[in-house]
TrEMBL record:
UniProt organism field: Pseudothermotoga lettingae (strain ATCC BAA-301 / DSM 14385 / NBRC 107922 / TMO) (Thermotoga lettingae)
InterPro entries referenced in this protein's UniProt entry, alphabetically: CutA_tolerance, Ion_tolerance_CutA, N-reg_PII-like_a/b, N-reg_PII/ATP_PRibTrfase_C
Signal peptide residues on this chain, from the entry's feature table: none
PANTHER family to which the protein is assigned, alphabetical: DIVALENT CATION TOLERANCE CUTA-RELATED (PTHR23419), FI09726P (PTHR23419:SF8)
UniProt-recorded name of the protein: CutA1 divalent ion tolerance protein
Length: 106
């Protein structure tokens, strides 16, 4: 299991893209929340409100998620990175894998 972290300029765009990834079964679930961000832009420090997204998926889907995020993302240089999960509850891992399978879960 991995989590992928990225940020968006607004809640609507974050939810739109995350839902797209979910419907395509590239991710099993997502969390979107508002954050305060500070960063360098054009040689000076900027501060802004953004929306962060944590996307939960399998190692096997990582590159597909990265590719789709880059296609859909509104930022020209988006922060997109993954973190491999060392330990995960067995029941949650099973749910995640079932959620990402190509068969209908219902």
């Amino acid at each position: 299991m991995i989590i992928i972290y990225t940020t968006f300029p607004d809640r609507e765009k974050a939810l739109e893209i995350c839902k797209n990834l979910l419907l395509e079964k590239l991710i099993a679930c997502f969390n979107v929340f508002q954050i305060d961000s500070g960063y360098w832009l054009d040689g000076k420090v900027s501060q802004d409100k953004e929306f962060a997204a944590i996307l939960k998926t399998s190692n096997f889907k990582e590159q597909e998620v990265f590719k789709k995020l880059k296609e859909l993302h509104p930022y020209s240089v988006p922060a997109i990175f993954s973190v491999e999960i060392k330990t995960v509850d067995a029941n949650y891992k099973q749910w995640l894998e079932e959620s990402l399978s190509n068969t209908d879960n219902q």
